[in-house]
Design a protein that fits this description.
Radius of gyration: 14 Å
Distance between the termini: 27 Å
Number of strands: 4
Protein name: Large ribosomal subunit protein bL33
Organism: Rippkaea orientalis (strain PCC 8801 / RF-1) (Cyanothece sp. (strain PCC 8801))
CATH topology: Rubrerythrin, domain 2
Helix content: under 10%
Pfam family, one: Ribosomal_L33
Number of helices: 0
CATH class: Mainly Beta
Keywords: Ribonucleoprotein, Ribosomal protein
Number of domains: 1
Shape: elongated
CATH architecture: Single Sheet
Strand order of the largest sheet: 2-1-4-3
CATH superfamily: Ribosomal protein L33
Family: Belongs to the bacterial ribosomal protein bL33 family.
Length: 64
């Protein structure tokens, strides 16, 4: 039998400024993983988190 699919899903958040910013501290893109409730948050998440590559707090958006 298949396991029942839960309400919470694991998502990946990616820095929006790492793609376009050329004056970064180090090369690369910052990514975080977290979970969200599928029923309460139907749209894409946007959270302000610390990016070690940009060395500042930036907006991280949900990616596929």
């Amino acid at each position: 039998m298949a396991a029942k699919k839960g309400v919470r899903i694991i998502i990946t958040l990616e820095c929006t400024e790492c793609r376009t910013n050329t004056d970064k501290r180090s090369p690369g893109v910052s990514r975080y993983t977290t979970s969200k409730n599928r029923r309460n948050t139907t749209g894409r998440m946007e959270i302000k988190k610390f990016c070690p590559h940009c060395n500042t707090h930036t907006i991280h958006k949900e990616i596929k």
